[in-house]
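To fix ideas, we quote verbatim a fold written out as tokens:
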Amino acid sequence: MHNRRWIRLALITAAIAFSVHAVTIAANKPTPPKPNILMIVSDNQGWKDIGYNGSEIRTPHLDKLAATGVRLDHFYVYTMCSPTRAALISGRAPSRYGILGAIGYRSRQALPPETVTIADTMNACGYETAISGKWHVGLRPEVGPLEYGFDQSYGFFHGQIDKLTHRYKNGDRTWHRNDEYVDEEGHSLDLITAEAIRFLERERERPFFLYVAYGAPHPPLQESAEWVEPYANEIAIPSRRLYAAAVTHMDAAIGKLIATLDGTGQRENTIVIFFSDNGAIQRWPEQPKNYEGRFGPYPVLGDNGPLRGWIGELYDGCVRTPALVNWPRVLKPNVVDSVTSVLDWYPTLTALGEGVVDNAWRLEGRDIWPLLSGKGGVAETVLYWKSYNGRRAAIRSGDWKLVVDRRNKTNELFDMNNDPCEKQNLAAEHPGCVRELTALLEQQAKLDSD
């Protein structure tokens, strides 16, 4: 185990066992044994790019999980891949670490090494922790998953790869096993699934926290006829057809994971979580300097309709994504319309693991188990976003959302209850609300400085 991880784990274990400053967040938690946790995250999948939201894309396995589980219909993430993943791993808004956009090329940006992560905490709760897939909060082995609480890791450090060569767009290596570079053959989605299945099939004495982070349907798109041809007569635009094929390929992989849980007798004690890391990308231009010019252009890709906006923006088409939770015989089918976010997973899963959270970690989410179980509500939350260049910011409190453009000195105010598609700017009609939300936004910005 790496030295930094030893130090963090010792602190977490001490907090769980002895700290008088820790607060228990396990209200309404289920009875033992502790559940296994399978968290699945897709990449750039739009609001309408899932069957149960009315898509032409077929996602039968995800649709079944949604129909027999809890749909989170107002689930919020961040504007791009790295910010959302940083929020998931740390339990804090990514702007606290200066992570505003996709970490790329040979950037040395990463989560601070002292960050107490969700993997650290689950490990201290007695869980075996693993990731199979996309990391994207550190691009080098020195800041790979093993440094942040995972017992094992597999997949790629970067945000996008050639699905067959597993190389980043500038040709750099990124495919790894346990944070050491490896070379393998096969489609990355299939390899990620196979590794996850190997993990699930292994005999163990501890519960597990498995984070499966797919790179689909993020471009470049490389899908075989098996996945493309079923859409030949249904989707006319080739790039959209490829995108649909990638989503359905991923859905089939998720079906294999669920079948493995069934086959190993673990399904009824495994909570399955699914969401997308951000909304869809609208198009992908030709990139002659990347991947040796072999991919693109893709003029039509995802569909965030009817929500407004695309990846990288502050509107709900980017920051609100499909999400669901499924746990047989424990969670009844339901649709949760309350606001939830990626920040909520850290405290919620810690509670399920019978752990505690130390106030010093400054987590920003809530334990949403009462919402998931249908046994109650939770306190309202304030959500705060910052654009990749820092020029724009947004905040949501209750039913109101304010989007601020500092460069143009403009405000957009939306009543999200009556105008979820953000079509009508009410800033002029409600100046008092603008002032209140602006003050909240400034408070959040100060926390970034801390």
